[in-house]
Prior knowledge:
Elements: H1 2-12, H2 14-18, H3 36-50, E1 56-60, H4 61-67, H5 72-78, E2 95-96, H6 102-109, H7 119-123, H8 125-133, E3 135-137, E4 146-148, H9 161-164, E5 165-176, E6 179-192, H10 197-215, H11 218-248
Antiparallel strand pairs: 1-2, 3-4, 5-6
Helix pairs in contact: 3-10, 4-5, 8-10
Amino acid sequence: xxxxxxxxxxxxxxxxxxxxxSSEFIEHFTPDTTNKAxxxxxxxxxxxxxxxxxxxxxxxxIHLARDLYLSEKQVQENLIFTTDEHGVPTKPGELMVxxxxxxxxKEAFGTVPPNLSLVSRVRGASWLYSYxxxxxxxxxxxPIGVNNTVFPDVGMPHVLWELQGxxxxxxxxxxxxxxxxxxxxxxxxxxxxxxxxxxxxxxxADLVNFLVYLGEPARLExxxxxxxxxxxxxxxxxxxxxxxxxxxxxxx
Length: 252
C-alpha cells in the first residue's frame, strides 16, 4: 500500500517536486530510448554514480537484460554491485534498491534520497539534462560546496565532477524597477574534468535516456510494435484499396 501511494504522489503531484527551479537555464533535450548503446552506457553510469544513494526500486535488474539486449551474465557482472545484509550478492531478479537504510540516510543526509524510477516523468528529460550540466562551485554552501542553476540550494553533491570538472558562474547585473539585480549569465569550466564539454554532454544525455527508460520501460516495446503495426496498416490499406476496386468494378 505504501508503494502504491508513493507512485500516485509522484504521478499526480509533479509540481511539488519541480518547485524552486529556474527555467532560464533549462536546455531543450529530446530523449532517444531507441539508442541501445546510449541506454547501456546510461545504465552503467546510473549504477556507478547514482545507486550509491538513489534506488530505482520499481525496476528489476533482469529487465535491463531483456530491454537493453544484455545477457543475464553481463548484467550480473557489470551492473550489480550490491549485497544483502549477509553479504550475498544481489540476484538479477531482484529490485534495483540500495542497501542503505532510511535511518542511516536521514542521519547522513538529513533526508532519504528519492527513488529515481519515475523521476523522468516528474521532472522531464530537458530538466534532468540541464540539471546534470548545471552544477557550479559555491563556497557558501558547506559541506557540499556546489549549487545548481536549475535547482538552487540542491542538497546533492556533484557526483559527476570527475567527468565534467568544476564550473564557476559568470554574473550579470540588470536594473529592474530602479534596483540592480545580480544573476548568473552563464557557467564556465574552472577545473577541467576527464571529459570535454562535448563529451560530458553525451554522458548527460546517456544518463537521461536511461532515466527516461526507467520511467516507462514499456515505451521500448511500444516502439518495437509500432513499426510493425504501421507496416501492417500500410499493407492492409493497399489490399483494401484493390479489393474495393474489384468489388465496385461491375457497379460502374
